[in-house]
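Researcher: Here's the sequence for the chain we discussed earlier.
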Amino acid sequence: MHVFVKPTQTFLACHVCSGLMFARREIKMTTTGMTFLDLDWLNRSAEGVICVRCGFVHTFMGDAHQFVDPAIVDPQDLPVDPFDKTESH
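Model: Thanks. This is the structure I predict for it:
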């Protein structure tokens, strides 16, 4: 999936490899106090946006991003991927 970042009105490119495709996973934002009390399950969650190319995890709290099906994204709206030799930007 592609990730649209609402505040910047742009699609996310991986901060490590400039990849444009991402998977998602819930991430617990653990805190020392809750861990000490064995209450990790009460910690807030964030959404991990994982680059499918290199595995780097970008973390988002709240709703400032949305996943978008690649089938409905205009390739001209995506950032340039320096490793994609087939791009015609």
